[in-house]
Amino acid sequence: MADTLNARAPRARAPQTGAAPDPRRRAQRSKRRLAFLFVLPALLLLGALVVYPVVFSVGRSLFDASGEQFVGAANYTEIFQDPATLKAIRNSTIWVVVAPVLLTGLGLVLAVLTEKVRWATAFKLVLFLPMAVSFLAAGIIFRLAYEQDPDRGVINAAVVAVHDSFGDPAAYPTARAREDQGLDGAAGGPYTTTEALRPGGSVSLGFVGVAPDAMPSEARPAAVQKPGADEIGGVAYLDFTPGGGGTPGKVDPAEKGLPGMTVEAVRDGTVAASATTGADGSFRFEGLADGEYTVRLPASNFAAPYQGVNWLGPALVTPAIIGAYLWVWTGFAMVLIGAGLAAIPRDALEAARMDGATEGQIFRKITVPLLAPVLTVVFVTLVINVMKVFDLVYIIAPGPVQEEANVLATRMWLVSFGGGNDQGLGSALSVLLLLLVVPAMIFNVRRFRRSRS
């Protein structure tokens, strides 16, 4: 019986040394190999275009300008000793502090306002259009717009138009007195008669330097009116005869008066009377007491015309370039913040309105806190972008003030390739720029990961 049971009992199988692998593990390995093959081209590009240049730049920054002598940290020390590089660091700091804050604030305000306008889509499209313009084209546009000559720069044309609407421009900015004709003064005025006059006398004040097409349309042939016993008269005229001829210092028939000039009668340093020349250039001071007077033409008659603001001068070139940057990137900030605004639960806003909250309170205490994650991402993204700004600075800033407008990126290019030919210092600047950008990038990446989880 025992033999029968032993015969029927199952026998243990001997281990097979050549067993086939688990099909699931084999499928996973196959998937990993396939994924690696797909990722390999991207890894090669990343290594060739990012990793290798970074490693090479770090190594190159430790050598001198020729690349032959090892200098260690000397290039990094020179960064903080070179005045031009310190200006670039200062300007980069201004950019990082000012531009992202203004852009985030403008984007927030515009995103909220566009929700309340009827043509919100068209408005957003118009504001976002500058993003389609390259930085090269935007730089050229604003370089022309910032021209100081009002005939070429549209911004100064508007500034001059507003200025002149509140103040009268000088009548004859190019006029100057003929020499040895009885007037004392330098170009631009004021001019004063060298000889004193008494009531009943008259004087002729001849000027040159006024182009015929710059003469007022109401100008008439110059004429001297005979003054009364208690008056002093005279004429201010263009002492130039068209076609030649005429006698200098004498009013000739073909010469025209200078209308609209302010003339003053001065006695003992005090203005006793003033008058404005008529269409024929004549003027008259009435009711003068007996005594000696000099005739003065104030400098306001000859002041140079207002030419607007020197936007591209040393003092304003950086704010002017930041203004161009705002024009390009405001639409970007507005659209991103607008997308976050659209995701805010409307129940919270309606509940606040039902409780009697004003729109300002809703904006400050509900909208802004709920948009804080979006605002942070926009701000950090703009900080990264601002640190790398190059095109606008290089194109807009004129050569004489280029150093005043430089940021780290432009300084790096100028030192390496723009005439400095010191790629050791240029590589050190690029490494510094990378070290400044990396923390902001890490912050953004971590925030994206937290938002996914």
TrEMBL record:
Subcellular localization(s) per the UniProt record: Cell membrane
Keywords: Cell membrane, Membrane, Transmembrane, Transmembrane helix, Transport
Region (Disordered): 1-26
Name of the molecule in the record: ABC transporter permease subunit
Keyword Membrane: yes
CDD domains for the chain: TM_PBP2
Topology in the lipid bilayer: Multi-pass membrane protein
Highest taxon of the lineage: Bacteria
Segments crossing the lipid bilayer: 34-55, 93-113, 125-146, 324-345, 366-384, 424-445
Family: Belongs to the binding-protein-dependent transport system permease family.
Pfam families (UniProt xref): BPD_transp_1 (PF00528), CarboxypepD_reg (PF13620)
N-terminal signal peptide: none
Gene3D superfamilies assigned to the protein according to its UniProt record, in alphabetical order: Immunoglobulins, MetI-like
Residue stretches making up the ABC transmembrane type-1 domain: 89-444
UniProt source species: Streptomyces xantholiticus
Broad class of where this protein is predominantly found: membrane
